[in-house]
Amino acid sequence: MNDTSLSLLARLQREPESETWNRLFELYEPLVRVWLRKYDVQDADADDLVQEVLLAVSSDLSKFNHGGQPGAFRGWLKAILINRLRQFWRARDRRPQARRDSDIDARLAQLENPASEMSQIWNRQHDQYVLRQLLELVKPHFAPSTWKAFYRVTVEGQRADLVARELKVSVNAVFIAKSRVLSRLRQEADGLVESSSGFFMSG
Amino acid sequence: MPDQITHPSPEELNAFSLGQLPVDAAAAVEHHVSECQPCCETLLGLASDDTFVELIQEAEQLPTDLAADQVGESGNRSSIPEIPAPLAEHPRYEILGLVGKGGMGDVYKATHRMMERTVALKIINRELVCKPEAVDRFHREVKTAARLSHANIVTAHDAEQAGDVHFLVMEYVDGTDLAHTVKQQGALSIVDACDYVRQAATGMQYAHEMGMVHRDIKPHNLMVTADGTVKILDFGLASLAPDALADVDTVEARSDLTAAGSIMGTPDFISPEQADDAHQADIRSDIYSLGTTLYYLLTGRPPFADGSVMHKLRSHAEVEPEPIQNMLTDVPEELAEVLRRMMAKNPAERFQTPAEVADALAPFVDRHRSQSPPPPTPLAASVDSRSRGWKALWAAAVALCVSLAAAGAILYLQTDNGTLVIESDDENVEIAIRPLHHDSDKAAESSASWQLHIGDTVTGSTVKRLRSGEYAIALQGRANEFELSQDRFLLKRGGKVIVRVTRRDAPTEPRDAPDRTATIPSPAFDGAEIQRFSGHTDNVTAVHVLPNAAQAISIAGDRTLRLWDVQAGEQLAVFGPMALAPFGLDVSPDGRYAVTGDYSGKIVLWDLKTRQRRDIGRHDGSVYCVVFTPDGQSLISGGAIGLKSTDTTVRCWDIASGEESARIDMPTRVRAVDVSPDGTQLLVGLLDGKIKLYDWESKALVRDFKGHRQGLRSLVFSPDGRQAASGATDGRVYLWDVAKGRLSATLTGHATTVASLSFTPNGRHLVSGSYDGTIRVWNTVSHDEVLKLEADKHVTHSLAVSPNGQYVLSGGGKYDERGHHDDGDYALRLWRLPDGIAGTASDATPATLTEVRRLRGHQDMVNAVVLFDQHRRAVSGGQSSIRLWDVDGGRTIREFSSETSATVNAMDVSPDGSQLATGHFSGWVHVWDLDSGETIQSRQLFDQAKVIRTVKYTPDGQGLLVVADQHGAWLLEADTLGDLVHIDLPRIRCGALLPDGRHVMLGAYSRWLGMYDLANGQLVQAFPEHAGSVLDIAVSPDGTLAATASPKAGVLLWDVKSARQVGRFLEAARRLETVAFTPDGRHLLARSDDQQLSVIAVESGLEVAVLMTDNQVTRNISISASGEFVLTGGGGYWDNEEAELVSTGDYDLRLWQLPSR
How far is the C-alpha of B1014 from the C-alpha of B1001, rounded, in Å? Predict the structure, then answer.
């Protein structure tokens, strides 16, 4: 499996740290921000905290090894997020609304538990956000007609023959477009998005 | 066109389409598909998406605007459109529906959520209360009217305000007003008309005596219930009229308002002098209006029916109404004369009081009503109601006598000090009564006893010699055939005691007398009521027994606080009536003071000795609850909705200065507060069912309890402060473990609201009082209901166990189904508790361990502790931090952290003291350098929601045993964390190394206990099935014995070599989670998930000490190598039922000195 050559994670781990940081930020800033908000961090504080979380990721990224564990990266990111959120709220302990604090603790404990509903939501959202970034990332690599065919069929869920008629291409071309883009997305997403792995092996 | 043979399979095509194929395979299929039409057809037919594609689709639907991710908090509360918003959302009243519309405003039927009684709410039209003076007067007048308590008057409870809506809260009457009746049925019969008017006159007389006039008597304001009782509506409301009229400038508006209905006297029924000047109205004006009402009832029309309002008013003053005889032929001349006198233009010529009217109408009612019962005799005054109450009791007793005459006998012993009633299944029974004197100096004169033969005295007997006091009562012979309902009773002045003599189930087969000292009393104890204290004239809302046990206090809806002599059953003092009904009551620890709150938020301190009152302070809303702190220095009060505004604070007051010393904001209204007996903690119960625990010193929230789903009504600490009990409107009683905030039991049995709870002084029983008419006693350990006291539909609002643990005093009231309080029985009831429940003796206090040092620093739960380097250093780890401690100095030397080092569950220090190994949630294992704090090695063994239970260095320090809950066990190389051995045991829970370092014992939830060879992971020795899950294992220092902890079976002791069970200790209900041998192997420490540590002597199996780690819930322990000390850490526990980890606060480590033996 030549999964290392093209996956975004592999490239991130190879690239110099400054470069990694920018990419990571682009990739993860929206997701982390959403989750900080879920844990009652005000926007003013969120800017700093997003940076802290992603700096922690980027500095340790070269050492990260998913070791074949599906979803390991997002679990690691989650652990870091939880850790930083705990620190953040602890620093603001002794606040008047102590009630909220224990609530946050309980919710963080939930997020920490990989089997919790909260963790499932994290997993799903993580994959969604990463994929959205990946869609942007791979789009320039395809001819506009290919992309359009892929998008109509895969994202918008239209029938391939109708799309073919609309775009004045063969149905064959539509399927090939879909296959190429999805294949590329899977490669990019490998190690980041759980369901990207598990290549079909014929025979 | 390629050959058919080369077509890819549909699966392959689908994988291609979804981009799942590896690059090479994809290229081949792509080449084929680009030219193959049939494959395109196949693909069109497949059209299936996988998770990845679904994710892409979802990703494209993600909001680009972050704000869209927020869940909006839209206030889409549903409300009934007609109901004014402040009322629809009213916390105290639940609106059931609109029941009437009137000039004054609409009337709603509602439920008082707290008292659970049906009330009517009369909304006062805004224009009538637009001026502050009018509002004040309205409240004042209603308060005055609320003093009226009479069968013929609709009771006004209160005037309230919700937002800008003012409303009157009054008794809900299910009936029809007389105007409506006449409109429906036409004129009434003479008998009915006179009966109704006479009843109204009786009510008016009572009000008159209380200094009230109505000023708007008319058929609309006379309600008749199904049983024919007339109730006068709207006492106090006419006060709104003069100002309202004066405020209206124009004549049109004035007559509009008047025409609209009932503001001042209604023009059809108003007296001439009141029409002239409303302020001149007196009781005689009401008599005139009652006369016109009688005229209306008899003829079906008012005396001056025609013309404008002004014309009507003039007619009242100047025109004689058409004589009634002209309209009705059968009207007696005498009745016409009564009517004429009632309607005389000159007040001086009228009946001067309503009583005269009632008397004058009596002949017409009685003569015509000879075949039907007279109208209910209203209670004239509270004094009368008391005597009537007793008459009713007597009547009931007589009735009972008749009904039982065939079956047995009743003996009345009417003494100068009260009545003893003995009901017997058989006449031929002899009974002995002997006074019980507790004072030795009275013993001399107490030798007398009385022998009574029931058969001789069926018709009653008077024994003058019985004094007030306590007596023993016993059967003389025939004890095998009969039993007494009680073996002693308390006779009090004016009181009544009923003793029952019942035939035993099997009279021919003698059997042993039941053991009276048993915890579970025989059913004959049910109804062990020994005394009633009469005096209150409305529902008793709170009672307390003073610390001396000789006196009690009570408050009631009659706006009084009363002091009682419990022994004599006498009322010692009445405080009040107050402006508003008091709510919330407590007694100072020295018994000198009582404190009350009320609807206006006022807190009043009553000196029970000097009878002085002192205002302490007030809430912005009402005060439902107020308690003294145990030191008697402070008061704590809880606020709720009040007359003017809502108050959701708990406030603390310094009694000496009267100053408010602290305030805690609550999310909603407060229903109950209690302070722990040691004064360190404060429990707050909220109306919505939530319960909060606060630290008294800092006023900081310690934790939230889950609370009740609905209406909490009562909340108390147990005498030792470890438990709390709460009761709610659904009839449930919850018992709480305070340190954990965990529900320890749900006590079910009460059918409805549990309004009051009280622990017995030794904490072994809890007494609950309910609106369901019963009082129940529960065992606080077994959680069984051990006694039910039948209060005969008497609703218990409040009860208190006496400090000597012998009695329960209860107070309440009684409502009929319609919510009327009906029979005036508001007597307090005194109940004797059976011997098995009574008593103050506490269990011997367990030995307490001496705390040597406290290590402060952790800010959340500590799951693992290791004491090492003799006891000079320690490591501890919990949810977020790992600390190395200088134990002697009591300080943290270092904190360890990495991004994945959260939630440590197990740890160990290497034998050479240089390294620390930690096991974390979701599979991480870290090895740290203790000196530098750096990680040496890290490894994630798995990524699942599993806890690592054990991390333990082998004695040579080369290996590391790791046990992951329900996952497996590993022996790792300590340096590299590489696998040496992996033992797969799916339901594994715990493990312990043997001293040889070559074997390990593993225990599982599946009751599996086995010994394994660490060289190859093979099972060496299987132990017989374990009694319950194996929660922990300890191996003795010499390796011969193993101890295991089981949640149900206690601690089991095993001979390792033979795999035989050789001992079993602590077969208790506690959930034992940790076992550890002392270094000398002679003692075992067993930790349960509460505050207890038990020390067991291995040899004898005896529990030689129980060590209470104050209020901290422990999670782990570590014994020093010397065996002198034990270190504990905790602050939380695993809630097995909820399957979640619960933090309980207090995360300090504690070092304890173990007793030397």
Answer: 10
